[in-house]
Amino acid sequence: MFSSLGDADPFDRHHRLVCSPLYSARQLAIQRLIIVVYGGATLVTSLVYESVVLRQGNIWFSYFTHLTYIGLFSYFLASAYHGFNYKPVPSSSYAHPLQRWHRGLQVMHMLLLSTVTTFPLLVTICYWALIASPATFSSPYETWSAISLHILNTVFVLFEIFTTNIPPLPWITLPVCLVLLLSYLGVAYITFASQGVYTYAFLDPKTQHSKLAAYIVGIAVGHIIIFVLVRYAIVLRDKISKFARYHEEDTQHQGPKEALNEWEEVEWEDAGQRESAGSSVGRSTSEVK
């Protein structure tokens, strides 16, 4: 199982979780930290406003949108931490903290990666296709909330997919993601039983009837499609980027080797020139004799 989630020994052998094909690991960590700051501010603002102003704080954690955003925030926070502690070393050594952590935490990180690169895309599609209405932009807060939670979440995911070296999503995480989606139904119906509110209107069997099953199956199929598209988008990115022009490991370890080869080539050329000159002198001496 471990080998199907990444390089078994050491984990993330090529340091793909902390590197980018476009910029250095430190620059990537800084950009991830910026997302963390904005994401954290968004979560706090949303929770406080809906608790104090809208009086809906008791169901805030029941929304799939908020749960996926918390996951996104957590992923970028962990990735930024590992990126700032990244030290380029040979692939057989430990370069960032996650490589030294317990195997269970490594597995959880890969599962988190699979959820944060697929669930937010599903949230965005479902929101704008099923939930959005004229009231979505009825006030400055509603407008900001819709943009932050249902547009920028996808922007953050696309940033992670196309501008980093994260590996293709492991197939073994797909059924886990589907189980998590199914588990959310329990959260939604427990919330209705305890608070008398459906987090999403399309989950109400009294109004949706047979459509409810279609929605559930459709969302599951939609997630499978998104998972496959994300996985092969990463594969395509790898083929285009060739793992990074500015990979710190390459600059630290291949650079000196290339310089040495150039020095050896110059020395070889100089030796060849001296040998050629010596032969010419020898021939000239023989001719004089």
Automatic annotation (TrEMBL):
Key word Transmembrane present: yes
Keywords (A to Z) from UniProt: Membrane, Transmembrane, Transmembrane helix
GO cellular component, one term: membrane
Keyword NAD listed: no
Stretches that traverse the bilayer: 33-54, 60-78, 110-131, 143-162, 169-192, 212-234
Compositional bias of kind Polar residues: 276-289
Disordered: annotated span: 267-289
PANTHER family referenced in this protein's UniProt entry, alphabetically: MYND-TYPE DOMAIN-CONTAINING PROTEIN, OS02G0130600 PROTEIN-RELATED
Name the UniProt record assigns to this protein: Uncharacterized protein
Organism: Leucocoprinus leucothites
Lineage: Eukaryota, Fungi, Dikarya, Basidiomycota, Agaricomycotina
